[in-house]
Amino acid sequence: MDVTGSVASGLALIDDDHLVWKHLHGTMTQFENLRSPRTERLASIAKSEGPILLAHPERIFAWIAEAGLVFPEALIIPLRVADEYAGALWVGAGGNNHFDRGDARVLSELSEFVGIALQVIQELAKLRKSLEHQEIVASEMGHRLKNVFAIADGMVRATAKNAATPEAMVDALTGRLHALERSHALLRHSVDRQQSEPFQTDLRSLLSEIVRAHCDGARDMDWPFALSGPQVACGEHATNGIALIINELATNASKYGSLSAPAGRLEISWVREADHVVLRWIESGAPSVMTRPSSKGFGTTLIERTVTAQFRGEVEWGWRADGLHVRIVLNAQRLAT
C-alpha cells in the first residue's frame, strides 16, 4: 500500500470451491477471513499470465458494494505456490488512472516472495502434523506394549498350569504368542494407512491371517478354508481377543479336525444381528468322528472366558460326525474397541 499509494490490499487464496480473503489492510480489513465462491471472476483472473488492471471490482463482488466501498481501480497479480495457482495478490486505488507499469512490476516481485512464504508455511504445517502423528503413535505403541505384556504374562501362567510337560507348554504358548504377533502386524499396517485415527483392522483380514498360518504349504488357490461376511471393524483390544479365539480353534482343527485332513474344509461366516455379530465356525471332512471331550481343556476355557468376559457374548459347541461346529456371539460395540 505504501509503495503503490493504494487504499486497500490483501490476498485472495483458493481453498477448494472458495476464495478466502486474508491479510487485508486499509478499507477492506472488515472482510478478513471472508469466504466467497470460487466461481467468482477473480478465480479466473488469478490464472492469467501477468498483472490485471480491473475497473470497479465492486461491480463483480456484490459484498464489496454492499459495504459502501468503491474502488475505481484494482491491480491484481496472480499468485503461485509451488508452481500451482493459489489465488491473487491485489491492491485497490481510490481514483482513476492510479496504477502504472512500475506498480505492476513491484507487485509482481512481491507476489513471488509471497508465494515462497506461503509454501514455507504449508511445509511447516505438514511437518507439525507429522510430528503430532509420531507423538500419537509413540503413545499408542507404549499403551499397546503394556497390554501385550499383560496378556503374555497371563498366558504363560495359565499355560504352565495346564501343560503336562515342558514341551507341551512350549508348543501351546508359541502358537498363542504367534497369533498375537500376527494380530499386531495387522494393527501396524492399519496405523500406516490411517495415520492418527484409532487403531483398527477388519474381521476378514484378521481371520484370514490367523487361520492361514495353520495351513502350511497351501497355495492361495488351495486354501482349505472360506470366509464370508460383511465388513466389520475390529479395534485394538478386540483384535487381540479374536486372534486368541481363532488361534485356539485353528490349532485344534490342524491337529485333530478338518485342517489335518487332505480333503478337510473349514467355513467361517459372520452376520450382523441387532447389536451383535454372530460368527460360525464349520468344519467338514475331519479324519475321525468328532465327539464331545470328557473334560474342558485350557483352549476351550480360554475361548469361553474371552467371549463372555471381553465380548459379553456366548459360545455354542456342536460336535458333528465330520467336524466341529461353533457358534460365537460377540457384542458389536466391544468388537469395535
Descriptive overview:
The protein is of the alpha+beta class. The chain folds into two domains: about 10-125, GAF domain (Beta-Lactamase); about 165-335, Histidine kinase-like ATPase, C-terminal domain (Heat Shock Protein 90). About 45% of the residues lie in helices and about 25% in strands. The longest helix is centred in the middle third of the chain and has 62 residues, at about 100-160. The model is unreliable at about 190-195 and about 215-220 (pLDDT under 50).
What is the straight-line distance between the termini? Answer: 57 Å
The CATH topology of the largest domain is given as Heat Shock Protein 90
H and E order: EEEHEHEEHHEHEEHEEHEEH
CATH superfamily of the largest domain: Histidine kinase-like ATPase, C-terminal domain
User: Looking across the biggest beta sheet, what order are the strands in?
Assistant: 3-2-1-6-5-4
The CATH architecture term of the largest domain is 2-Layer Sandwich
Number of strands: 13
Instruction: Supply the helix-strand structural class.
Output: alpha+beta
Radius of gyration: 33 Å
Structural shape = rod-shaped
